[in-house]
Amino acid sequence: MAKLFSYDNPVWRFMGRVADVFFLTILWAVCSLPVVTAGASTSALYYVSLKMVKNREGYLGKSFFRAFRDNFAQSTVVWLIMLAAGAFLGMDMYFFYHMESRAGVFAFWLFLVFTVLYFFVAVLVFPLEARLDTKAGNLFFMAFMVSIKNFSWVMLMLVTVVCILALGVFVFWPVLLVGAGTVAYLHSLILVWMIFPKYGWNGKEEPE
């Protein structure tokens, strides 16, 4: 009976992790509400989830807000660049899709390829921001190169985003309450165990 209520019980560990990703999702959503802060919020989300994978997260709220504060300036710049690039690609694809000519069709497919590359960079740039101390330009370059060299893993990361979003929107909306935290945690599992070791990247250590 004692083992049933032990913290080491797999069921309780799983429930604890569900509570963690729920709390992270709420923190991420609240801190992303001003929109302009969404980059810093996403970077902080990945900072904590990367630590969670190795059971080194400490106090979630404290770690999240420390990362939010420390990475705010650069994460905001990265986010605004991604937001502008996404809007540009979206408008161009819409324009060329409705353009009834061969040139329009060609341009549409060309921008579709650019959009796919954009999503590949988007899925990696904030985890890299959370993990590495480097400039914004280097982050974009590394996100692009790592995504190309790890195509199958990054594609799996994108698929997890689509599946969880679709599940929450079309099947069972409460999934959205743990959506962001779950995505970040699953991505962190792939990054920590499958991608980051290839490059010998050490994480930012949270100060005592």
Question: What are the main properties of this structure?
Answer:
208 residues; mainly alpha; globular; disordered C terminus
Description:
With 208 residues, the chain is an all-alpha fold. It contains 8 helices and no strands. The longest helix is centred in the middle third of the chain and has 30 residues, at 102-131. The two termini are 37 Å apart. Residues 204-208 have low confidence and may be disordered.
Give a concise summary:
The chain is mainly α. The protein is built from eight helices and no strands.
Ordered list of secondary-structure elements with their pairings:
Layout lengths: L9 H23 L5 H16 L6 H11 L1 H26 L4 H30 L4 H14 L1 H21 L7 H21 L9
Helix pairs in contact: 1-2, 1-8, 2-3, 2-4, 2-5, 2-8, 4-5, 5-6, 5-7, 7-8
Order of helical and strand elements:
HHHHHHHH
Q: Given the C-alpha coordinates, what overall shape results?
A: globular
N- and C-termini, Cα separation: 37 Å
Q: Which oligomeric state applies?
A: single chain
Helix content: over 70%
Low-confidence stretches: 204-208
The helix count comes to 8
Largest sheet: none
What is the radius of gyration computed over CA atoms, rounded to a whole number of angstroms? 19 Å
Strand content: under 5%
Report the count of strand segments.
Answer: 0
Question: How would you classify the helix and strand content by structural class?
Answer: mainly alpha
Mean pLDDT: 90
